[in-house]
């Protein structure tokens, strides 16, 4: 999730300071590197480096770049660590074409090999850099700039918003989008493009939306939108933006957390876009080890629990999950140079997790990691890492980073399943297919069930405690529902494997005690029905997350949230956790708390 801003201003105006101030408003989308390009006097001016906007500006003076046309980019690394050569924009061999990009190009390796075969020289490790070179290549074959760009876009697979400037058409910007966002702003004879409207809101309230599969040409004559597939011109009406700058940053949602819950429709897709090569590398390290520990804290620990169960079921691998702060007590004695550590941390900076990694590394273990922050300390300590590709998470409570961690860990387990041959191929195929269906299911859930979750939250707003129960792979989902709820609403909450609840917890149950069951129709269904009856018989208020149409559990429950569509059991936590995130959110808001900044908590815990 990077941030892009581009502008075509009146001739004689300087674009660079405007680009920098727009990038400031986009920094929440990513901030590991910054870059700007302007066009003037028949050449491109490029400044870029690793670091936050103010750092890079104080080093290079980003305002001091001539020209009234230009583009800026704030990066959140996916391919290639944060470094000057990987910062955008990227240019072609002759530095005549510059491109910035938000998204992931899945087939970049094939295209890169093809272009290298034609003597194109690449300077970065990014997927983006193939774009200016491919455009250059098509121009070399006699195509004009727009047609060369259109042809390039049609070669790309994956997600992208792309913005291109060229020294040879100095008053023109070209854009294209597929899955990643890009909006267009119409000023007074001046034109803008940006990842979201918050970037140009102080400049204009008039906007055009670029739809999937479209590209556009911005020049002093205005904005022309084309269908990338066939070059057909598309007519689009202007819209007027009514959001204030603060709500624009949150895309109109009241809180970042709610925005991030909704973003999961996209972030899971992005998490699943990481090239298979990373999974294969991680898998071969695991196969080459005698022991595997998964190490993490908080929400990442819950993702690790799902991952461990999947590794057992699909690959016959016994992965012990250890809370990072307990690692040295619980596991370090067992670590040696035949051990693999799989660390899970969205920030990649959690001190407890880093300490565990350092201790294990000192004993010769291989370090694998799953993280959302490329360039983080954890990534740098790792032999192999897999990126989550979620973009920055602003809300302190982890939401979109949890579902993307689970998606990545399930794909890793599927990769290991194929390599070890321990599970039927059809079962692995079914899981991989299901992972790609989860974003659509979450979208439907968010379109149809938010009101019912809000109503349930209202109805339990005075509860002194709330309990979450699940079985199998949804024990971690229950733990995650509990963590979200207690950290945001400050209501003491409890979570158990449902079968374990009768060994003690059940004594708390009295009339009206809310118990939330995570109850998809998997192999635990019959047993969980038994647990529901035990609780119901003692007066508990039963709230169940069920698959649509599960009449048996619906009839036993006081409230249900119906999850649309069916999934193989291992994939269920990705979708079933979403109502629990919403439950915690609405309970917190209902109590007058700020769910984005719960008391006593920090986004990244860098102390022991
Ligand atoms: C809970 C939450 C925390 C983090 C934990 C680990 O909503 O956000 O429990 O999951 O502090 O953080 P990372 O994943 O950055 O290591």
- Biggest β-sheet strands, sense, barrel: 8 strands, antiparallel
Mean pLDDT: 95
Detail the poorly predicted runs: none
Fraction in beta strands = 15-25%
Question: Which structural category fits the helices and strands?
Answer: alpha/beta
Q: Could you tell me how far the N terminus lies from the C terminus, measured between alpha carbons in angstroms?
A: 30 Å
- Number of E-type strands: 25
Summed up, the helix count is: 19
Attached small molecules: fructose -6-phosphate
Sheet with most strands: strand arrangement: 3-2-4-1-10-9-11-15
Rough shape?
globular
How large is the radius of gyration? Answer: 25 Å
The share of residues in helices is 25-40%
Provide a descriptive summary of the structure in words.
The structure is a single chain. With 608 residues, the chain is α/β, with parallel strands linked by helices. The chain is built from 19 helices and 25 strands. The chain has an eight-stranded antiparallel beta sheet, with helices on one face. β24 (541-547), α18 (551-556) and β25 (559-563) form a beta-alpha-beta unit. α4 packs across α5 (145-155), α9 packs parallel to α13 and α13 runs antiparallel to α19 (572-590). The chain starts with a strand and ends in an 18-residue tail after the last helix. 56% of the residues are buried. The site of fructose -6-phosphate (F6R) has 15 residues, from α9 and α16.
């Amino acid at each position: 999730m990077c941030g892009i801003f581009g502008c075509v201003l009146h001739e004689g105006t300087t674009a660079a300071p405007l680009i920098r101030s727009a990038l400031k408003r986009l920094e929440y989308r990513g901030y590991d590197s910054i870059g700007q390009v302007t066009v003037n006097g028949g050449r491109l001016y490029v400044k870029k480096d690793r670091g936050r906007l103010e750092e890079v500006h104080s080093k290079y003076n980003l305002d001091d770049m001539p020209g009234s046309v230009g583009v800026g980019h704030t990066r959140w690394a996916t391919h290639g660590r944060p470094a000057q050569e990987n910062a955008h924009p990227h240019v072609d061999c002759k530095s005549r074409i510059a491109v910035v990009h938000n998204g992931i190009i899945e087939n970049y390796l094939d295209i890169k090999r093809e272009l290298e075969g034609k003597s194109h020289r690449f300077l970065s490790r990014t997927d983006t850099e193939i774009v200016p070179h491919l455009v250059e290549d098509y121009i070399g074959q006699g195509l004009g700039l727009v047609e060369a760009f259109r042809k390039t876009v049609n070669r790309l697979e994956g997600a992208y918003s792309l913005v291109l400037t060229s020294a040879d058409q100095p008053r023109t910007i070209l854009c294209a989008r597929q899955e990643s966002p890009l909006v267009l702003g119409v000023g007074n004879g001046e034109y803008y493009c940006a990842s979201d409207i918050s970037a140009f809101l102080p400049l204009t309230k008039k906007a055009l939306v670029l739809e999937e599969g479209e590209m556009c040409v911005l020049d002093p004559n205005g904005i022309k939108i084309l269908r990338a597939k066939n070059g057909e011109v598309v007519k689009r009406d202007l819209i007027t933006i009514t959001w204030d700058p603060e709500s624009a940053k949150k895309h109109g949602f009241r809180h970042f957390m709610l925005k991030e819950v909704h973003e999961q429709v996209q972030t899971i897709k992005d998490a699943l876009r990481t090239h298979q090569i990373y999974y294969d590398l991680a898998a071969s390290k695991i196969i080459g080890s005698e022991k595997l520990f998964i190490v993490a804290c908080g929400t990442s620990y819950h993702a690790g629990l799902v991952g461990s169960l999947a590794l057992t079921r699909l690959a016959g691998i016994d992965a012990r999950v250890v809370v990072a702060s307990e690692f040295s007590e619980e596991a370090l004695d067992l670590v040696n140079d035949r051990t693999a550590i799989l660390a899970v941390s969205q920030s990649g900076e959690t001190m407890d997790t880093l300490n565990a990694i350092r201790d294990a590394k000192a004993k010769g273990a291989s370090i694998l990691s799953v993280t959302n922050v490329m360039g983080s300390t954890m990534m740098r300590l790792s032999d192999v890492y897999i990126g989550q590709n979620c973009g920055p998470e602003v809300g302190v409570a982890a939401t979109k980073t949890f579902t993307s961690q689970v998606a990545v860990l399930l794909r890793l387990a599927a990769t290991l399943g194929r390599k070890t041959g321990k599970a039927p191929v059809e079962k692995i195929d079914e899981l991989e297919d299901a992972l790609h269906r989860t974003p659509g299911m979450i979208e439907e859930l968010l379109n149809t069930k938010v009101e019912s979750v809000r109503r349930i939250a209202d109805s339990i707003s005075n509860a002194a405690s709330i309990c979450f129960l699940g079985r199998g792979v949804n024990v971690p989902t229950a733990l995650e529902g509990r963590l979200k709820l207690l950290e945001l609403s400050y209501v003491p909450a409890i979570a158990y494997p449902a079968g374990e609840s009768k060994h003690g917890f059940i004594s708390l149950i009295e009339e009206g005690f809310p118990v939330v069951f995570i109850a998809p129709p998997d192999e635990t269904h019959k047993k969980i029905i038994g647990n529901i009856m035990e609780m119901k018989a003692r007066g508990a208020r039963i709230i169940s997350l069920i698959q649509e149409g599960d009449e048996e559990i619906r009839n036993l429950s006081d409230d249900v949230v119906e999850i649309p569509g069916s999934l193989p059991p291992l994939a269920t936590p990705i979708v079933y956790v979403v109502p629990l995130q919403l439950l915690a959110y609405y309970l917190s808001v209902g109590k007058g708390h700020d769910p984005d900044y719960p008391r006593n908590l920090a986004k990244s815990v860098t102390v022991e």
